[in-house]
TrEMBL record:
Comp. bias intervals (Polar residues): 234-245
Gene behind the chain: Slc16a14
Pfam families: MFS_1
Name listed for the protein in its UniProt record: MOT14 protein
Keyword Membrane: yes
Stretches for region Disordered: 220-261
Compositionally biased residues, Basic and acidic residues: 220-233, 252-261
Amino acid sequence: MYASREDIGYDFGDDSKVGSKPVKPNPNIDGGWAWMIVFSSFLVHILIMGSQMALGVLNMEWLEEFNQSRGLTAWVSSLSMGITLIVGPFIGLFISMCGCRLTAIIGGILNALGWILSAYASSVHYLFLTFGVTAGIGSGMVYLPAVVMVGQYFQKRRALAQGLSTTGTGFGAFLMTALLKYLCTEFGWRNAMFIQGAISLNLCVCGALMRPLSPKDLSEKSVVRSNSEDNRAKSLSHSTETIKSNGVLGDEPEKKEEATHEEVLESVQHIEIGGNSGSGRNMYGLRMLKTVSQLTLTVRKGFALWYSSYFGAASLFTNRVFVAFIIWALFAYSSFVIPFIHLPEIVKQYNLSRQDNVFPLTSIIAIVHIFGKVILGIISDLPCISTWNVFLMANFTLVTCILTLPLMQTYVGLAVVCALIGFSSGYFSLMPVVTEDLVGTKHLANAYGIIICANGISALFGPPFAGWIYDITQKYDFSFYIAGLLYMVGIIFLLMQPCIQKKQPRQKSTEAAQV
């Protein structure tokens, strides 16, 4: 049922060289510094995703301060959450040129700046720019590198590592909610945002922990993964050679351009060595030329990788399973966000506020969500279990809960459904793993950037759409029904693609059949 890159006959060229000799793995892959990367990603999820889950506290303060409609004020939170994910493809360009570490550090500064500037807001529209856009872009510049680095550092326990790091969202929802409530009560919402901006500077520390792997380490990881998953079948090798002979991957022009720049750098170095007797001004000019050439080479290589991933012959969009994955992401995330936004109002309509105040339903989702990510990650890492099948089963459970939630009108019934929503939505930790299986480590940043961009669109328009349906029908039932049906459409797209690929004649080894 699982369709990997071998199943669909598609190769991005990141692991085409599979050596027959045993490769000694880097000790930092699946161990050592890899766990520091998980810790860094965990803190990022607390400071970014956890803070966004706690924006309801500030939303009430903004309503009281600016006396605007609930719909207009809610767009501040929606913009922040949506832009964090929507900018994913563009952040992929930064990662290709600057690397994950520098991108995350710049994003941490930008996020903190957005919080601090928002403390001086004079209107809701001011918050659109400072908090929604500025802090949102900064969050996106930290969030994507945090996910990508975990994928680079782990091979055998990727699902578990992603599950542990993303549990920061649940912990952050509790910590940041309590913190913002305390700060708003003691110091007011403006000072609370200023203090939160100072706390957000810790994102720069998280970015500094994202020590990049060397290209040699990445190639060794790719070789190990290729050996453990499948030895290339003859038909696939033939198709790959055909692709390369037709220039699909387009590596030759890039190599020629890189060689040209290297020649320039070598010539500059020779001049520096032989020009010791020259003037200091000339030597300074040569060093500047060398720096500019190196920077130009880095930017061009990064842009070429980013451009080829989206628009080149080896575009990610030529992978039909990945395109279906994008369509699924457009409908999936709103089904998780809508209950967080509208459950308090549903509880109020059912006269269940007293029970909800003791133990809020949204807190049940957040708590079980933590365990769901870890447990689903552990299950997916078992040798006999397919990550793809676990991913699909969790999606089926979540869409069933979304469709049945309006039928529950007691606190116990709602609590059970919310617990199932929290557990099944733990599949979010599997999204980077599934994406990496489809496109490879080399294209993970750009591919996952597209996926979270689709999620951002879903988060941006999902809750307002649900509120609009309520304004028409005066019920939240149809909001959940429509969201669930659209979610089911996305799941059907995922189910159709593996079936299409299996109809294609292909040869697979016995080991590949176990993937």
